[in-house]
Specification:
This protein is an alpha+beta fold and 180 residues long. The chain has one domain: Peptide Deformylase. The chain is built from three helices and seven strands. The protein has a five-stranded antiparallel β-sheet, sandwiched between helices. Bound molecules: nickel (II) ion. The site of nickel (II) ion (NI) has 5 residues, from α2.
Length: 180
């Protein structure tokens, strides 16, 4: 992109369960404040809001990099927009159990137990270190989106029996051409 060119956000394809990129560990981001990074971030927001999600990780659009966006207000409150690059959970506290879904596993929601509060260390778009606290839904979103960056889907937190049932249903959808 040329310097000064306007940033045009693009809705990207969301990869679904079965795509290898979703189950690989992502590479850290090493170059900050570049046009490519700004474009990726803009597209992540656009794609997440267009899919009506509250979180999206870069591997979900096929980019195996450690970057996620979260907005637990689903676009209602600008202050809730969180971008995390190369994040790490440095503290987990308490427990919560609640329904969880994933834009890469549409149509399936299951209760998942997670920490109720987390502290996250990450970097922003400029590469500056940031530290964030998440409680309840935001804590859940942090854990879910950071899992993605390690190639872990919420199915991994279910019992093997539940996981197999969902995998089998997805296989049927794949065979029927209703999952791509
Ligand atoms: Ni997800």
């Amino acid at each position: 992109m040329l310097a000064g060119a306007s940033l045009e956000e693009m809705v990207r394809k969301i990869f679904k369960y079965g795509a290898a990129v979703l189950e690989q560990a992502c590479e850290p981001i090493t170059e900050f404040d570049t046009p490519e990074l700004h474009e990726l971030v803009a597209d992540m927001w656009e794609t997440m809001y267009s899919a009506k999600g509250i979180g999206l990780a870069a591997p979900q659009i096929g980019i195996s990099k450690q970057l996620s966006v979260i907005d637990v207000s689903a676009g209602e409150n600008e202050a809730d927009r969180v971008l995390i690059i190369n994040p790490e959970i440095t503290l987990r506290d308490g427990k919560q159990t609640g329904e969880e879904g994933c834009l890469s596993i549409p149509g399936f929601r299951e209760p998942v137990t997670r920490a109720n509060r987390v502290i996250v260390r990450a970097q922003n778009e400029k590469g500056e270190p940031i530290e964030l606290e998440g409680l309840e839904l935001l804590a859940r979103a942090f854990q879910h989106e950071i899992d993605h960056l390690h190639g872990i889907l919420f199915l991994s937190h279910l019992s093997p029996l539940k996981r197999d049932i969902i995998r089998r249903k997805i296989k049927k959808l794949q065979k029927a051409g209703e999952w791509d």
